[in-house]
Request: fold
Amino acid sequence: MIRVGLTGRLDPLIRRKLFERGHPEVTIVPPGTLNDPWRAIVRPGTIPGDPAATTVSSWQLAGLMDQLDALLPEGRDTDPESGHADR
Reply:
């Protein structure tokens, strides 16, 4: 596997590909310009504290992947009806 720096974490581009395979319901949108953040479109109910929110963003792909991994851990999906994670 390709690792980054001293953290031993996967390269963000590889993390993105793996995440997209495991979560086809999430759309990751790259920045349109240098002044735009990375964004991900998720189902309503995925973001704690704001059940209507559907967008997560970060200036760096690694930051976006960290957020997505926290919201949708590997092997879990979010049920759009209840907003609860399914196993």
Confidence is low (pLDDT under 50) at residues 76-87. The helical segments are 12-22, 61-71.
